[in-house]
Amino acid sequence: MANALCGNGCVAVPCGDLGAAAALAESVPMGGTYRAKSSFPAGRVALSAKPQPRSLHVAAAGQMNGNLTIGKAMRWWEKVTHPNMREVQSAQDLADSLRNAGDKLVVVDFFSPGCGGCRALHPKIAQFAERNPDVLFLQVNHEQHKSMCYSLHVHVLPFFRFYRGAQGRVSSFSCTNATIKKFKDALAKHSPERCSLGPARGLEESELLALAANRDLQFTYSEKPTLLPIAEAIKMEAAAIGGPWLPLPPSATHFLPQGSDDALIPSGR
Question: Which Pfam families does the record match to this protein (predicted)?
């Protein structure tokens, strides 16, 4: 044989066959995990068992397939954000965020990724958020939360609702770039600092009940107990078995309208 195989796995090439062996070595692929090494033209061609870096394999595969690996593109509503801007994750998240906002003004921005008006308006909304760091901006993705938006009666985009402390919802409207003054005026009207005489109201009770009745949502709401008027409470007590325990003092009867159905029912004692 013209060539001899060495004990260490190397191919020994006679001096007279250097040209043919070199051409053969260049034409024969060395394999995906091996590379050819040669110290000088007259040396031996050795097969090294050292694997190539993984990045080289990925790059080579991409070049062979004609494809380029591109990272996930950032969505347009995530490109310009500020610490006081946050995307709502669920109906429970929206209700809790409004309830825990205290006296802070909360702007709820209903948008859709495919809404051209929403995309054009977003940079200006981000500017308002930057200029008003004390205002909380909540973003609701209509595509991800269609059922929730339906329960909240949001049927047009872009759409905004403003909430403030114990007042609850203070403004609700739709606007575009052409009518951005509507948003600016509402922000100027409701953003000044003020103290509420009570906890934050958040969503309307009818909205909470609609969300709780929506089987597509994981939302629980226990209706708050309502206080009965004093006249109704007295009627219920008088109609109870055994009547009132003690007769009502005459001074309390002037609170009831005379001659009406709310008048005190005599106990017969």
Answer: Thioredoxin
